[in-house]
Specification:
The chain has ten helices and 13 strands. It is an alpha/beta fold.
């Protein structure tokens, strides 16, 4: 079945630096800069397609060269972009990314057309959400737009995967959420509890359950992944790799998770598959050029 993705489209401008700069510090990068397709929504749509899923993307870009580049990259990746809107009044979103020698990053985003994705735009694509098995959303587009998309999904019985990145205010209402996928920093900020140990992860999950979330999947970076539902409580051990660029790892996780769930895989197995995909992605440069294929991930899992 189709997986609908509502979210942002950016162009990523990446510079490799010896370290992430401090306040008022200028850091000279190594070599030239690189330009990649990015945006959390676009990355997750491309990840769904890389995982063998049928991705239908709902987004907005400018009528500019970056918009053309973004659309071509997504279409070449196998993403249905028939509901990506071209906006004459906004530029395509842009992210400036610093990546250090350890693969860690710092990112600043100019939202551009992403800020102009409206509830009316979502209504125009309601049939896509209605026909999908899952809806994947994040927060680089307006929260009201995202909430409306989730309400349409609930109306049509479409499961919702909500990746709350960047993290919203702690008191924001989510709406109906089937799978909630924060990283440990986002989870702690939203729950008001540090994500330090198993006990705190259980408490955080309970808070999200009280807010209408059915399943909680907290990504823990190099420590793996924590899955909690009414029936399951699972720690997924990390896959050990040499990271060169962590940009987009969470997006890879969410896209592969959605594809696995859409195929009918159990939540624990789907999360393990998504962890493996994210681990492979950080061994390569770029938020979208680093995507592994389904076969690469299954082969990697078989060897680890």
């Amino acid at each position: 079945m189709t997986i609908a993705i509502v979210g942002s489209t950016n162009i990523d401008l990446a510079i490799r630096v010896p370290h992430i700069c401090e306040k008022n510090e200028t850091v000279i990068g190594s070599g030239s800069y690189e330009i990649f397709g990015g945006g959390k929504g676009a990355n997750q749509a491309a990840a769904v397609a890389a995982a063998g899923g049928k991705a239908s993307f709902i987004s907005k870009v400018g009528v500019d060269a970056f918009g053309e580049q973004s659309m071509k990259g997504l279409i070449d990746a196998g993403v249905d972009c028939s509901h990506v809107i071209r906006d004459n009044n906004s530029a395509t979103g842009l992210a400036a990314i610093l990546v250090d020698q350890n693969g860690d990053n710092a990112i600043a985003v100019a939202p551009g057309a992403n800020e102009a994705l409206t509830i009316d735009d979502i209504n125009a694509a309601e049939s896509v959400i209605a026909d999908a098995s899952h809806l994947v959303v994040q927060l680089e587009v307006p929260f009201d737009t995202v909430r409306h998309a989730m309400k349409l999904a609930a109306k049509h019985g479409t499961a919702v995967i909500f990746n709350p990145a960047p993290a919203p205010a702690a008191n924001e209402e989510f709406g109906p959420v089937t799978y909630f996928t924060p990283n440990e920093v986002e989870a702690a900020a939203l729950a008001g509890i540090p994500a330090e140990d198993e006990n705190s992860l259980d408490k955080i999950s309970a808070i999200f359950f009280d807010r209408g979330v059915e399943n909680v999947i907290i990504t823990l970076g190099a420590r793996g992944c924590f899955v909690r539902s009414a029936k399951e409580r699972i720690f997924i051990d990390p896959y050990r790799v040499d990271a060169v660029d962590t940009t987009g790892a969470g997006d890879t996780f969410n896209g592969f998770l959605a594809a696995a769930l859409s195929r009918g895989e159990a939540l624990g197995q789907a999360a393990k598959y998504a962890c493996a995909a994210a681990a492979l992605s950080v061994t390569r440069h770029g938020a979208r050029t680093n995507l592994p294929t389904h076969d690469e991930v299954t082969d990697f899992m078989g060897r680890n």
